[in-house]
Design brief:
Blueprint (H helix, E strand, L loop, with lengths): L4 H12 L8 H9 L4 E4 L6 H11 L3 E5 L3 H14 L6 E4 L5 H12 L5 E4 L1 H5 L1 H7 L4 E6 L19 H8 L5 E5 L4 H11 L5 E4 L7 E7 L4 H11 L4 E5 L3 H13 L4 E4 L5 H12 L5 E4 L12 E6 L6 H8 L9 E7 L1 H11 L4 H19 L4 H8 L16 H4 L4 E3 L1 H13 L6 H9 L4 H5 L16 H13 L3 E4 L5 E4 L1 H8 L5 E3 L15
Parallel strand pairs: 1-6, 1-7, 2-4, 2-5, 3-4, 5-6, 8-13, 9-11, 9-12, 10-11, 12-13
Antiparallel strand pairs: 14-17, 15-16
The structure holds adenosine-5'-diphosphate (ADP).
The site of adenosine-5'-diphosphate has 13 residues, from α3.
């Protein structure tokens, strides 16, 4: 089907009242209308919902939208109904409906009134629903929060793994639309593989948030005082403070209140009424600050959040990006301040210890990236965007000076010779070590694994003795970000040589490095036990 440009804009105006498409929306809508499998990667707030809602409203039949969160589905259905005079235009199908309600939903779908049907994956799997959906016209299938399909995402849901099979049972040639705000290459690959949409037309928006300022401070005994001081300097502005535990949320909210900050706690342990009243107080600006666990934020659309503080470092860069992303949605200032102590990482590792081995390996690899992010002295924005598969140039890119490391750069030193040593050793060992063991080989520290490969007998073993392990770790990370090396994901982080690294070995050139920040790992103050 070919849809003229003017029709699309008319439809956008007619259904949503918007004059222009946002970002990549128009291309996505066209791709869906053409019946292509389509993959959409856009940061939160990018306008993903419209990408499938508009073509659903324009087409014959019902679009099925799979989403993991019942509350979000309800919001979306209300919003769509609000745009039209017809309640039946959008429905949720879930287990909370009674018989009469289910009958109504089915009638509306059969008669062609319903354009959007929201379902949770568990409801879609139900035999009676599959049987019913086989008999009606489905325009396409949109899988929202598609990263839930991947163990490498921050929110793995095993039920998502079944989706491809179920879709196949509902119909043979239903176009599939995957949407996510998680941009790591590995998660993308998993989504494409699991949804079986290898030829999908892919749209990926930039993840750069130029108005956000990123800062990491060491977490010491006086972290609470530091947070109070920061909030007082930003008096009257809205902000969120994230903590790992409910207990810590309660304590910190109290400390803030005692110190004259208008703050409320929010976590899943509070009853529903308190949670919704605290959320409303924040939205209505009766309070300035919400101290919260990660339970807070899903679907919160307060555009003028001016700061997001992480009292505890999150368990992955994705989580950090999602949570900090709640600041400055209106395009205005957004200060993202995280407190970091290595002890917190160890604590997060301990949480994982009871989990299956593969999950632990993934969790560990994700945490190592958080460590690298916290300790790095290269631009934080560059680091984050690199993590999401995007190259960023601080000189020319928007927001290039908006982080602590760029504002207060550490001195750079020439590391050409040491970069050569490091890359030579990656090659010399046939690229089989993860970062820790690689550094051990460089500084000549034996262990069972290294000895079992007889790497300790190689001439290059210990060739970098003249520097400390922390130095080599920093150099390694910077060579990764610069693209000379890469981390292999299948093997949970083995360091491999890129063609640029091979070239460097042949023709070494200047490589300016900055040493990582040194965080005192013995300082366990401020850590809640
Ligand atoms: P996402 O699902 O990617 O997080 P949403 O679909 O919730 O993003 O959209 C974010 C916001 O952008 C919403 O408030 C939505 O109304 C608005 N929006 C979406 N498309 C447009 C557009 N074309 N013009 C103006 N506002 C838009």
């Amino acid at each position: 089907m070919s849809i003229a440009k003017v029709d699309l804009h008319d439809a956008l105006k007619k259904y949503f009242g918007f004059n222009k498409f946002k970002g990549l929306q128009e291309g996505v809508v066209k791709s869906i209308l053409e019946g292509n499998h389509t993959f959409v990667i856009m940061p939160t707030g990018g306008g993903k919902s419209l990408c499938y809602q508009l073509p659903a409203l324009m087409q014959e039949g019902t679009a099925i939208v799979v989403s993991p969160l019942i509350a979000l589905m309800k919001n979306q259905v209300d919003a769509i109904r609000g745009l039209s005079n017809e309640d039946g235009i959008a429905h949720v199908l879930n287990s909370s409906l009674n018989k009469t309600e289910i009958k109504r939903v089915k009638e509306d779908i059969t008669s062609g009134v319903t354009k959007l049907l929201y379902v949770a994956p568990e409801s879609l799997t139900k035999e009676e629903n599959v049987e019913f959906l086989r008999t009606v016209k489905i325009s396409f299938m949109a899988i929202d929060e598609a990263h839930c399909i991947s163990e490498w995402g921050h929110d793995f849901r095993p039920e998502y793994r079944n989706l491809r099979h179920i879709i196949g049972r509902i119909g043979d040639d239903i176009p599939i639309i995957g949407l996510t705000a998680t941009a790591t290459p590995k998660v993308q690959e998993d989504i494409i593989k699991n949804l079986g949409i290898s030829g999908a037309t892919t749209f990926k928006a930039s993840f750069n948030r130029p108005n956000l300022f990123y800062e990491v401070r060491p977490k010491t005994k006086t972290v609470d005082v530091d947070i109070i001081r920061f909030i007082k300097q930003n008096e009257g502005k809205s902000g969120i403070v994230y903590c790992l535990s409910r207990k810590r949320v309660e304590e910190l909210a109290q400390v803030l209140q005692v110190n004259g900050v208008k703050a409320v706690p929010y976590h899943a342990g509070l009853d529903a009424k308190t949670r919704s009243s605290h959320q409303d107080m924040f939205l209505m600006e009766d309070v300035d600050v919400v101290v919260a666990t990660i339970a807070f934020g899903m679907g919160i659309d307060k555009p003028d959040v001016r700061f997001v503080i992480h009292h505890d470092i999150p368990k992955s860069i994705e989580s950090y990006y999602q949570e900090t992303g709640r600041a400055g949605r209106d395009g205005g200032e957004g200060h993202c301040l995280a407190y970091y102590a290595y002890k917190d990482i160890e604590k997060l590792e301990k949480f994982m210890s009871g989990k299956p081995v593969a999950e632990q390996e993934i969790g560990h690899a994700l945490l190592q990236e958080v460590v690298a992010f916290a300790e790095t002295s290269i631009s934080r924005r560059k680091f984050i965007l690199h993590y999401f598969g995007e190259e960023f140039d601080n000189e020319t890119g928007e927001g290039g000076d908006m982080d602590d490391n760029v504002r207060n750069p550490k001195k750079k030193t020439e590391a050409k010779d040491n970069a050569k040593i490091l890359l030579d050793i990656v090659k010399g060992t046939n690229a089989k070590y993860k970062s820790k063991d690689l550094v051990n080989v460089i500084i000549g520290k034996e262990n069972a694994l290294i000895n079992s490969h007889k790497t300790n007998e190689q001439p290059f073993f210990g060739k970098g003795k003249h520097e400390e392990a922390t130095y080599w770790m920093a150099l390694l990370r910077q060579l990764l970000v610069a693209g000379y090396l890469r981390k292999d994901i299948e093997t949970y982080g083995v360091i491999k040589l890129n063609p640029e690294g091979e070239d460097f070995i042949k023709n070494p050139k200047s490589f300016m490095m900055t040493e990582d920040h040194v965080f005192d790992s013995n300082d366990d103050a401020g850590i809640i036990t």
